[in-house]
């Protein structure tokens, strides 16, 4: 029985596309299927990618909650509903693939109560550039001579943002000739492979659950 994946996105969805391709004709064929794609942004191009592949999608945006209930209560209600929706799908695995929203304990507690694991793809090495704009921050650090490599990783998601146990890591050199765009392209190329392999290793049991 193929594992059911629920993929969370916020943008282009090139990593979602890599997962879709792998389930159709790659190492995830007959091992995993993308059952649903959820975006927190209406205009995420990844929604079009999913629709083209015949995958059901939904959008869950924070702004309406903030407008009606204020920032703090709005975020709490948003997270409460998000957790409910994720649990309702009852996936084998949730994959954050460019999901740009910090998941509060309100969400994570609901997932752990239903034993639903969740992973995240991050465009940096463990404990290097946690959070957003990681590629730009790594590039800037390299121009300051502080680092000569960065990378990407897939990790289990915990409350501490990007602090979860790494599942897969790929180191990527930063050369003097690199621009931020060339570095981003190198990282994206490696991410597509790393994420698919990590999902494969999880759904086949090669990587034990945390
Ligand atoms: N509890 C966790 N939530 C999330 C994790 C995690 O490890 N633990 N990983 C992130 C993905 N991510 C980096 O890999 C990340 C995404 C977004 C943010 C962030 O600061 N988001 C802001 C909004 C930013 C924006 O909309 O541009 C926010 O949520 O207020 C940090 C890290 C996914 N979630
Ligand atoms: N902190 C989270 C974060 O920065 N995630 C990054 O968003 C991009 C999504 O690309 P995609 O939409 O083309 O898959 C990826 O580079 C992923 O590592």
CATH superfamily: Formyl transferase, N-terminal domain
List low-pLDDT spans: none
β content, as a range?
Answer: 15-25%
CATH architecture: 3-Layer(aba) Sandwich
Structural class: alpha/beta
Q: According to CATH, what is the topology?
A: Rossmann fold
Family: Belongs to the GART family.
GO molecular function: phosphoribosylglycinamide formyltransferase activity
Pathway: Purine metabolism; IMP biosynthesis via de novo pathway; N(2)-formyl-N(1)-(5-phospho-D-ribosyl)glycinamide from N(1)-(5-phospho-D-ribosyl)glycinamide (10-formyl THF route): step 1/1
GO cellular component, one term: cytoplasm
Please describe the structure with a list of short key phrases separated by commas or semicolons.
binds glycinamide ribonucleotide, 7-stranded mixed beta sheet, alpha/beta, globular, 210 residues, Rossmann fold, 7 helices, single chain, 7 strands, binds the ligand Nc1nc2c(c(=O)[nH]1)N[C@@H](CN(C=O)c1ccc(C(=O)N[C@@H](CCC(=O)O)C(=O)O)cc1)CN2
How does this model look, in words?
It is an enzyme of class 2 (transferase). 42% of the residues lie in helices and 20% in strands. The chain has 210 residues and is an alpha/beta fold. Strands 3-2-1-4-5-6-7 form a seven-stranded mixed beta sheet. Strand 2 (32-39), helix 2 and strand 3 form a beta-alpha-beta unit. Helix 1 packs across helix 7 (180-203). The chain is globular and about 50 Å long. The protein binds ligand LMY7XDAE and glycinamide ribonucleotide (GAR). The ligand Nc1nc2c(c(=O)[nH]1)N[C@@H](CN(C=O)c1ccc(C(=O)N[C@@H](CCC(=O)O)C(=O)O)cc1)CN2 binds next to strand 5. The site of glycinamide ribonucleotide (GAR) has 17 residues, from helix 1, strand 5 and helix 7.
């Amino acid at each position: 029985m193929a594992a059911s994946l629920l993929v969370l996105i916020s943008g282009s969805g090139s990593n979602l596309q890599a997962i879709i391709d792998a389930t159709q004709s790659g190492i995830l064929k007959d091992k995993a299927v993308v059952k649903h794609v959820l975006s927190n942004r209406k205009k995420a191009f990844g929604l079009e990618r999913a629709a083209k592949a015949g995958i059901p999608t939904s959008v869950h945006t924070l702004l309406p909650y903030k407008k009606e209930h204020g920032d703090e209560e709005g975020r709490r209600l948003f997270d409460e509903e998000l957790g409910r929706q994720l649990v309702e799908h009852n996936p084998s695995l949730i994959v954050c693939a460019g999901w740009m929203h910090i998941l509060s304990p309100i969400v994570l507690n609901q997932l752990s109560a239903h034993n639903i694991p969740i992973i995240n793809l991050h465009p940096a090495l463990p404990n290097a550039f946690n959070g957003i704009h990681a590629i730009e921050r790594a590039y800037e650090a390299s121009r300051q001579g502080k680092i000569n490599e960065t990378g990407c990783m897939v990790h289990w998601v915990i409350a501490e943002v990007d602090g979860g146990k790494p599942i897969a890591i790929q180191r990527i050199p930063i050369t003097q000739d690199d621009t931020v765009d060339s570095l981003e392209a190198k990282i994206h190329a490696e991410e597509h492979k790393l994420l698919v392999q990590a999902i494969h290793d999880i759904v086949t049991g090669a990587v034990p659950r945390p």
